[in-house]
Amino acid sequence: MDIRQKIQYLAEELLTETIQNRRYLHAHPELSFQEKNTSTFVQQKLQAQNIPFQANVGGYGIVAYIQGKNPTQKVIALRADMDALPITEANQTEYTSQNVGVMHACGHDAHTANLLSVAAILNKLKTEFEGTVKLIFQPAEEKIPGGASLMIQEGVLENPKPQAIIGQHVMPLIETGKVGFRAGKYMASADEIYVTIQGKGGHGAQPHQCIDPVLIASHIIVALQQIVSRNAPPTIPSVLTFGKVIANGATNVIPNQVYMEGTFRTMDEKWRAEAHQKMKSMAEGMAQAMGAKCEFNIVKGYPVLYNHEALTNNVKEYAIEYLGKENVIDLDLWMAAEDFAYYTHQIPGCFYRLGTRNEQKGIISNLHTPTFDIDEQALQIGVGLMAYITIKCLSVQ
Fold first, then answer.
1. Which fold has domain 189-299?
2. Which helix (H) or strand (E) holds 185?
3. Can you tell me the distance from the alpha carbon of 6 to that of 384, in angstroms, rounded to the nearest whole number?
4. What pTM did the predictor assign?
5. Per-residue pLDDT tens for 24-40?
6. pLDDT one-digit tens code per residue, 325-355
7. What are the boundaries of each domain within the chain?
8. Local confidence band at 1 (pLDDT 50, 70, 90 cut-offs)
């Protein structure tokens, strides 16, 4: 058997264990920065395979190492995230979340189980490749500042320094059996916006005696859309959304203040910085002109995720070799955000999508929903493909 056939055989042989690991993790989810038991589970699995690792990196993160022949020849990093979301699961399965209000609704259970099985394959085949594989089990992808940034601060990309990093993420919009790639800019930056409009409340029948923060907030929300429609370069996708507005008055009561929360996302770091200043100046200026005060705070989140062109094109070709051209698709830009982006600003990275949709099985729910689930047969593809990509990347000089 050639290396592709060996990997395919091992991925199939490991499928039952991969599913078991995924189901255990799904039933025992933990929120960002709280992944203590998940980390312990991963460590136990690595110990069982005699794979050396370092624990508690950037929180509950784990960095493991598999050395092939000539371990200093080249280093490739693989990343899986481990945290869950504050969502109450609506599915009724044997592996439904046992932690009420916490759910693996973004597939990080699948990512962790996937990387554990990839580790098992690479560990068995380590005499057949040169270089070192760095396995990154990362906490806190779902919450700013993001576990990736914390692990980078603690040296996850050093000693040894990887030449590239690969990440795989489930995608319920793509059928099981297929994977998707996009070179260049792929996912957006994401910033959190917190706004307080301080006016002067009073009786709803006497607005002339008030400084109405509800009206002022309404003007600001509408006006800020001008940042996207008239200030953003037409070639740069941008999104500004306010999803929370609290004006705690009544039918006949104008409140003293209005509180708002929103998100700003774009695909260009230079424009991102400019937009921050424009939004802040516009909101504060409008409030002042109407007699109110505006506190406009932006919490800077994840940067633009950039897939290195040459690396991504190579990885896409490896996927075609492994799965066939008909099962490898091109992805559109996606305005969601991912802290894997931090890695791509440090070293060449490739973040691709694993199809997990199966309409016949009723597996159609999107990410971050209470009914999200995956077609577990996709795990065999995900494990084998990532192992194959890794060995092929190590062979390129």
1. Alpha-Beta Plaits (3.30.70)
2. strand 184-187
3. 9
4. 0.95
5. 999 999 999 999 999 99
6. 999 999 999 999 999 999 999 999 999 999 9
7. 3-187+304-395, 189-299
8. confident
Q: How many other CB atoms sit within 10 Å of the CB of residue 324?
A: 11
From the centroid of its chain, how far is CA 196?
Answer: 29
Element (H, E) at 166: strand 164-175
- What's the CA angle centered on 18, arms 361 and 323, to 5 degrees? 70
Q: How far apart are CA 141 and CA 136, in angstroms?
A: 12
Check whether 140 has a pLDDT greater than 90.
Answer: yes
What integer pLDDT is reported at residue 397 of this predicted model? 67
Nearest CA-CA partner of 302 in 169, 106, 140:
140
Contacts of 138 (CB under 8 A, 6+ apart): 58, 61, 79, 80, 81, 82, 147, 148, 151
Q: How many residues does the chain have?
A: 397
Encode 60-103 in three state secondary structure. Answer: CEEEEEEECECCCCCEEEEEEECCEECCCCCCCCCCCCCCCCCE
**Burial of 252: CB neighbours in 10 Å, binned 0-12, 13-18, 19+:** exposed
User: What pLDDT, in 10s, does the model give residues 295-336?
Assistant: 999 999 999 999 999 999 999 999 999 999 999 999 999 999
- Which residues are designated catalytic? 83, 141
What pLDDT digit, counting tens, does each position of 13-69 carry?
A: 999 999 999 999 999 999 999 999 999 999 999 999 999 999 999 999 999 999 999
- 138: left (phi > 0), else alpha (psi -120 to 50), else beta? beta
Alpha-carbon separation of residue 76 from 81, 206, 308, 392, 396 (angstroms): 17, 67, 14, 10, 11
| CB within 8 Å of 13: residues ≥ 6 apart | none
d(CA 201, CA 219): 17
How many Å apart are CA 370 and CA 93, to the nearest integer?
13
Query: Which CATH code for domain 3-187+304-395?
Result: 3.40.630.10
Residue with tokens 């699995």: 45
Q: Is 344 helix (H, G, I), strand (E, B) or coil?
A: helix
Q: What is the pLDDT of residue 189?
A: 98
Q: Could you tell me which of 356, 377, 354 has the C-alpha nearest to residue 19?
A: 377
**Tokens encoding 187:** 């996912």
